Request: fold
Amino acid sequence: MAHSLAPTVIPMNDLSRGISRDQGEFTRVFDEVLASGYVIMGPKHTALEQDLAKYLGVAHAAGVASGTDALELAIKAVMPEGRNVVITAANAGGYTTTAARRAGYSVRYSDVDATSMCLSAATVGEHLSTDVGVVVITHLYGNLTDFSELVALCHSFGVKVVEDCAQAIGARLNGVAAGSIGDIAATSFYPTKNLGAIGDGGAIFTNSDASAALVKELRQYGWSSKYRVARAGGTNSRLDELQAGFLGVRLPLLDSLNERRRSIVASYVVSAEGGPLQVLPAVGAHHVAHLAVARTDRREEFRAALSERGVQTDVHFPVPDHLQPGFAAPAQSLPVTERLAGEVLSLPCFPEMTDDEVNAVCSAIAALA
Ligand SMILES: Cc1ncc(COP(=O)(O)O)c(C=O)c1O
Reply:
């Protein structure tokens, strides 16, 4: 009897594989935390903060409950007195908009550079005015580009720079890590991130003693010490001890996992050569290949063709912030951002993919015509 075999699905991600790789170490951490009785901000949390600061080459790291919280508290910590506008890109998933609004500020969108897909001095310049206090730069898809001109421009206007390195942890440009180039930085440990927890988590990085102290107060009700509220605007945003312990297991693996991600993207780039899909390269230490992103003006057609061959795809991100109904932002035209939202396509990319899976995606890419 004839029957058709459903193609094996190559998923965008499969968290169970990384969990099973690390299960022995996670179990050890779990047992140690249970035995210690410290379940929030205990010794593993302190150790993780120290290890993260050392890894990035910054003076301070502070654990918090999520990447969105990290953005909110980072923005609050550096917003100059008397200013209330945050400038950001509209193509980075909406997290900064959520965080800045929760912090009580308004958001102004700048278009992005057509090549880096990130903010630049050229795109942000026209939006700077005396009410702007913070520019949030997102190292999109894992790509740390040269922001020195933008940082210098912001500082010349008294504007602080917050880095969102949730997609770019471990990226280094000329030896300088994502998370160490602005005034303060935020990251997420959402499970699919390059450094992912087994639940929610986030962290803030800074070289400023004052900002670090402020963030550490804000993450715990505005307390300067127990039950003494010294700051307005505090909240409860703590990274719990188990997650800190799990992240401590994974931090030493990060560089090699990032290398594996880059090699997956490199295979896709080779397979796409001469074909109609433009896979964006992720070559060198400045790119940690959080996502394998391609550009095409035939997205729906190619997504269907890839799906036929069992390759899952996704879009990061289909709707720019200024067009999200829930954000109800004032009407604005951001031509590059809007064009990119219609062109980008993400392919499976996670370090635990098998070589067979990578090869199957490569064949599916090569078959596109
Ligand atoms: C660039 C970026 N910033 C912020 C966040 C928000 O992090 P979280 O989900 O931990 O709040 C994410 C993803 O989740 C992200 O990709």
About this structure: The CA atoms of residues 58 and 180 lie 6 Å apart. The chain has a mean pLDDT of 97. The two ends are 33 Å apart (CA to CA).
